[in-house]
Amino acid sequence: MMARVTVRLLLAKDSHTILSQAVRQMIPYAASHNALITSMPQVYAYSTQTRSLNNKAKESVNLGPHIQENLKKFREGSHENVSVPEELQHFRKSTEEGVKGNGPEEEKPPMGAVALPHPIWSEEELHSVHVTHRNPEGIVDKIAYMGVKFTRGCYDFVSGYSRGRQDEKMWVSRLCFLETVAGVPGMVAAMVRHLTSLRKMRRDHGWIHTLLEEAENERMHLMVMLQLKQPSLFFRLGVMVTQGVFVSGFSVAYMLSPRLCHRFVGYLEEEAVITYTKLLKEIDSGAMQHWNTLPGPDVAISYWKLRPGAAMKDVILAIRADEAHHRVVNHTLSSLKDDDYNPYKPGQ
Ligand SMILES: [Fe+2]
Ligand SMILES: [Fe+2]
């Protein structure tokens, strides 16, 4: 029908008369309001071309008031304002109740419920973690190992750990601070590899996901330990300064030598396993025995899928198993070439 109308319009000498006839012809074919709206732009386009639109002819057409209003807006060039945004599906405002995370507290997902894949340890795996050490081979390994030993020695002295302090306050503060540092290498390494992939326009060989998983896992260790601590202003300042220095230094180091950095983290994780093993001994027969019965935080129980009513000792066993996993992952990545494929699949 439109083709027939168009031909008639193009051949017409008295175009404004033909336009009036064309609109009259279209009305019977417009089965609905929407069909007429759809055909209006073509009519208006033609009216602009002829530049001799006969207003009398247009107004004589028997159009409904809503359509006439739209036609008037088309003529005025304000047709973009015809639609009312709130009436369109994709502009509709969400209600408070309908948005997860913005509603009342009970509608928010619990912390750790939306997490990257990570290992869930069996009872056997939790109790089969041992302190291990990989002998440094070559200058890179020795630099990494000495760097970790020096850093640990300084922190042990400052925190009072090396002077025999073993109370709960020392343990919680120590673990909170260490986990704020432990979450940095995975994120920085993932970022550097991601940017290198973009910059050099080449594949990453599947390392990034493992590094991000490690970073989030360490951050979850921090979230768990923070259930037992309200950080002071002094503590926060210490974390801020340390993060600034460590992020800068580790970023440069990773750009220069990923192998050195993964070996450094591998040795750091060896120390983490030593620390958590020492804490477990304190829980078994030392100053921390109340953690055998102190209930573990809900976030820990949901994150590691621990049994209901699990105690802090179960939580520490899970964290230690994570650290032992980071230990082997980072020593493995350090021994690979930059373009070797990462052998760890998501969640492994
Ligand atoms: Fe950790
Ligand atoms: Fe770790």
Automatic annotation (TrEMBL):
CDD domains assigned to the protein according to its UniProt record, in alphabetical order? AOX
Question: Can you tell me which residues bind Fe cation 1?
Answer: 179, 218, 221, 323
Taxonomy, superkingdom: Eukaryota
- Entry protein name: Alternative oxidase
Compositional bias per record (Basic and acidic residues), positions renumbered to this chain: 90-109
Cofactors needed by this protein, per the record, are: Fe cation
Q: What does this protein do?
A: Catalyzes cyanide-resistant oxygen consumption. May increase respiration when the cytochrome respiratory pathway is restricted, or in response to low temperatures.
Give the subcellular location. Answer: Mitochondrion inner membrane
Q: Which gene encodes it?
A: aox
Provide the GO biological process annotations. alternative respiration
Citing just one GO molecular function, the answer is: alternative oxidase activity
| InterPro entries named among the record's database cross-references | AOX (IPR002680), AOX_sf (IPR038659)
Cofactor comment text: Binds 2 iron ions per subunit.
What does the UniProt keyword field contain? Electron transport, Iron, Membrane, Metal-binding, Mitochondrion, Mitochondrion inner membrane, Oxidoreductase, Respiratory chain, Transit peptide, Transmembrane, Transmembrane helix, Transport
**Which residue spans traverse the membrane?**
171-192, 233-256
Which residues hold Fe cation 2?
218, 269, 323, 326
Please tell me whether the keyword Membrane is annotated for this protein: yes
Q: Which family does it belong to?
A: Belongs to the alternative oxidase family.
The UniProt record lists the keyword Membrane: yes
